[in-house]
Amino acid sequence: MGSLRAARFFGILAACAVALASGSALAGLGDDFGARDPASCPFRDAPKTGAPSQQQMLRYLACDVEKIGDMGEYLYLIGEPLLEIAPKGRALDPKSDVLARDADPKLPVFDVRGYFRYYRCGRKTSIAWTTNPGHACRYQQYEDAKGLCWRDAHAEWHCMMDFTFDLKRTIHDAVPPTGGPAHPAS
């Protein structure tokens, strides 16, 4: 009986590992907001050298900023990204590269620039949703955004953009993005 329990336990453990590796651990989280799911990055080790590709940079950025936040009340998503990454890295400047949290100082950082929208979507149970179903998001456009990609002490890639939320520039009553850095628009 003990070995049967152990086998079941390890079977469940293996299934969880497969779910995490495939990225399905976040599947369905967007449903409560009437939106797509946030990105997940079970692996952040590519490339081993040089700059991330355009697709890798967009995915790492999405994984670092797409999330459910504010005690579960809002879903944050990136939409319409038009970003480019510098093909050559440069030395980390700890004073000015504040975005590069836990960056390995021996490795280069890569500048990112361009355009994207950052969405904040309320739950289907929110007042915004019940008064205007499907339009419970607000977003802000970042037209001349700057950011970085870097590897941390565990050799995992991260990307972050420098943006601050300005209520005066916010677009309200928006639909959530259908596509994003990790989810091509359908």
What are the main properties of this structure?
186 residues, alpha+beta, 6-stranded antiparallel β-sheet, 6 strands, disordered N terminus
Protein model, in words:
There is one protein chain. Strands 1, 2, 3, 4, 5 and 6 form a six-stranded antiparallel β-sheet that branches. The longest helix has 21 residues, at 2-22. By secondary structure, the chain is of the alpha+beta class. It is elongated and about 50 Å long. The protein is built from three helices and six strands. Residues 1-25 have low confidence and may be disordered. It has one domain.
Fold topology:
Layout (H helix, E strand, L loop, with lengths): L1 H21 L31 H12 L1 E3 L4 E12 L24 E13 L4 H5 L5 E15 L5 E6 L8 E4 L12
Antiparallel strand pairs: 1-2, 2-3, 3-4, 4-5, 4-6
Q: Name the overall outline.
A: elongated
Strand content: 25-35%
Q: Percent of residues in helical segments?
A: 10-25%
Number of separate strands: 6
Contiguous low-pLDDT stretches (5 residues minimum) are 1-25
Short description:
The chain is of the alpha+beta class and 186 residues long.
